[in-house]
């Protein structure tokens, strides 16, 4: 590892774009399948990994939703979270805002409470064992309709005081943010933060819709914003956080290779970009694997990595006092590693 990659890996950081179902490693998939007597269409762990070759987002989603079928009990969700938090601890991720997809589970007859209670238990364990803080972001599946999203928000009501915000994920093309304008307005009324995947595969107009119609506090991916200079200027001026996922972009063919990833351009344009893992079990690595991959591509400086780590807290939903505390820890780390 280069000095730069080692420096980046050691920085205290937050993760703002992580689908907990996407942290299901093949080994755990087999363990849960056995425990819950669920059949999976793979002979062994190697066969699972071999299936993780994707040409686009939909290729991935098909396999990702199939994999989630092994998750059945509160204990499964708690252990899934525990495995992810162990990776956070190893990667100096001290705070994480976790996406979960209730509809992936409720459609299979798993009560939303099973999902949420399991995750909350795992989050409490992580706070106690690793000192890692976390919150939950409930994502609506955009390939489903508005009524289904409203029903999901309603089902989550008993837990809304434990949920930081709502998000929007799944198949982007053909499912513009406008489809969910009313449900995001309802979420805002309930005091929830709002984020949305936009501009991963969808056009810059979807990013504009996420801003204007969903009134998002943060933008997930946002890569295709770069095609529209006026949109870039708007995002930079407003200090909008982009949760960028380099290895995900590589695996889903959003970029042709890691050396072509625009993370350096985003920073030069004044965008508040962050680095995240998205679905680490499927895309070849956790947060520090992403930091190391962009470090290896040689276009970022030491100051850029400090900026990326700072942005991860600045873009979080933590209190100002907590953000200040984490920024001070970054300064201390940078000072101790000249
Ligand atoms: N994009 C859209 N939906 C998703 C993703 C993603 O990268 N990961 C999990 N669901
Ligand atoms: Zn994502």
SSE diagram, text form:
Blueprint: H1 3-10, E1 13-19, H2 26-36, H3 45-51, H4 57-67, H5 74-90, E2 93-100, H6 102-106, H7 112-130, E3 133-141, H8 146-155, E4 165-169, H9 181-189, E5 193-198, H10 204-212, E6 218-221, H11 229-238, E7 241-244, H12 246-251, H13 263-268, E8 272-275, H14 280-283, H15 287-296, H16 302-314, H17 320-336
Parallel strand pairs: 1-2, 2-3, 3-4, 4-5, 5-6, 6-7, 7-8
This protein binds hypoxanthine and zinc ion.
Zinc ion (ZN) is lined by residues 17, 19, 169, 197, 220, 278.
Structure notes:
The protein is of the alpha/beta class and 338 residues long. The chain has one domain (2-336): Metal-dependent hydrolases (TIM Barrel, Alpha-Beta Barrel). Helices cover 51% and strands 14% of the residues. It contains 17 helices and eight strands. The chain has helices at residues 3-10, 26-36, 45-51, 57-67, 74-90, 102-106, 112-130, 146-155, 181-189, 204-212, 229-238, 246-251, 263-268, 280-283, 287-296, 302-314, 320-336, and strands at 13-19, 93-100, 133-141, 165-169, 193-198, 218-221, 241-244, 272-275. Strands 1-2-3-4-5-6-7-8 form an eight-stranded parallel β-sheet, sandwiched between helices. Helix 1 (3-10) runs antiparallel to helix 15, helix 5 (74-90) packs parallel to helix 7 and helix 16 packs antiparallel against helix 17 (320-336). The two termini are 17 Å apart. The site of hypoxanthine (HPA) has 10 residues, from loops. Zn(2+) binds at residues 17, 19, 197, 278. The active site is at 200 (proton donor). Belongs to the metallo-dependent hydrolases superfamily. Adenosine and AMP deaminases family. Adenine deaminase type 2 subfamily.
